[in-house]
Design goal:
Blueprint lengths: L23 E11 L5 E5 L3 E2 L7 E6 L5 E5 L7 E5 L6 E3 L6 E7 L5 E7 L5 E7 L6 E2 L7 E6 L4 E6 L5 E6 L6 E5 L1 E7 L5 E6 L7 E6 L5 E6 L7 E3 L5 E5 L2 E5 L8 E5 L9 E5 L5 E6 L4
Antiparallel strand pairs: 1-2, 1-3, 1-25, 4-5, 5-6, 6-7, 8-9, 9-10, 10-11, 12-13, 13-14, 14-15, 16-17, 17-18, 18-19, 20-21, 21-22, 22-23, 24-25
């Protein structure tokens, strides 16, 4: 079963850049084997720090060729998008603008990527850049307060809209009229294999957080699982399992077979803690994690 591994991670509200956390992105190679009960379980290789810079590095996104787009602040004033090549170890700066770009996400044409851009007046809107360089273009002029996004088709998106409450909305680029799908939503949501529904984290105040399957047309809700306590970032593996992290520990759950999360790794001995922001390449071979601790 194939899941689209977008974990959409942008700015939740306009922040002073002194408030952005000091963290790094780590790359881990996974090797998979079958357990005694038939479940696929990963074995993690060493965690490799792929950023190694002071300041904010976050929001990794795998491209089909295995390269990784991510957000970073190099001057402490604003953020740009960078690209890391795991094969060569080279890092390339992709955007260099006075504005701040967050949450790089490959668009379905394969030639552009979209970002949440914090404009000069602190308006947060969705823009696109050519992957190979060029001028940006505003995608949804009338839709503001965008925090996160994922593409559902070449013209349709799911957006996290910052507000009270935070909302998950559906929007067509041609119509620019968002339709609310869920309130009190978390920052990580993914397109389901049937492309007719979304998976999203529901975070109602004072209640247990849950991963829901949410119909795009009928908004029918089905609870897949409770999240790992206090965690909201997840990725799907190619065989339909969920990965989540808390502190230094990584957990796995097959929603259709498991009732409880299973701890599969603890990266504390490698110096990682406070892990957030997971991303997995489409083959399930490489995982990125964001950690507040430097190696």
């Amino acid at each position: 079963m194939r899941y689209l591994p977008f974990c959409l991670l942008a700015l939740l509200s306009p922040l002073a850049f002194s408030q952005l956390p000091d963290n790094d992105i780590f790359l881990v190679e996974l090797s998979w084997s079958k357990s005694e009960d038939g479940r696929s379980l990963p074995k993690l290789g060493p965690a490799r720090n792929i950023t190694k810079q002071p300041g904010y590095e976050n929001q990794a996104h795998f491209l089909p060729d295995g390269q990784i787009l991510y957000t970073a602040s190099r001057d402490g004033k604003q953020t740009d998008i960078f690209r890391f090549d795991p094969k060569s170890g080279n890092t390339t700066q992709v955007t260099a603008t006075p504005e701040s770009e967050f949450s790089p996400t490959l668009m379905m044409d394969g030639r552009h990527f979209s970002v949440v851009r914090v404009e000069a007046d602190q308006t947060q809107r969705l823009w696109q850049f050519p992957l190979d360089g060029g001028e940006p273009r505003l995608i949804l002029p009338e839709v503001t307060s965008v925090g996160y996004h994922t593409w559902l088709s070449p013209t349709q998106l799911a957006l996290f809209i910052v507000g009270e409450p935070h909302r998950l909305v559906w929007v067509d680029v041609a119509k620019s009229q968002p339709k609310t799908l869920l309130n009190d939503v978390g920052r990580c949501f993914t397109l389901a294999p049937d492309k007719k529904s979304l998976y999203a984290v529901h975070k109602p105040e004072g209640k247990t957080w849950q991963i829901l399957q949410l119909g795009l047309s009928d908004q029918k809700r089905e609870v897949l699982a409770e999240t790992v306590e206090g965690a909201e970032d997840y990725v799907w593996t190619p065989d339909g399992a969920l990965l989540m992290a808390r502190e230094s520990r990584l957990y796995l759950l097959h929603p259709k077979r498991d009732k409880q999360w299973r701890q599969i790794a603890d990266l504390a001995d490698q110096g990682l803690k406070g892990i957030t922001r997971l991303a997995l390449d489409h083959k399930g071979r490489y995982l990125t994690l964001v950690s507040a601790t430097k190696l």
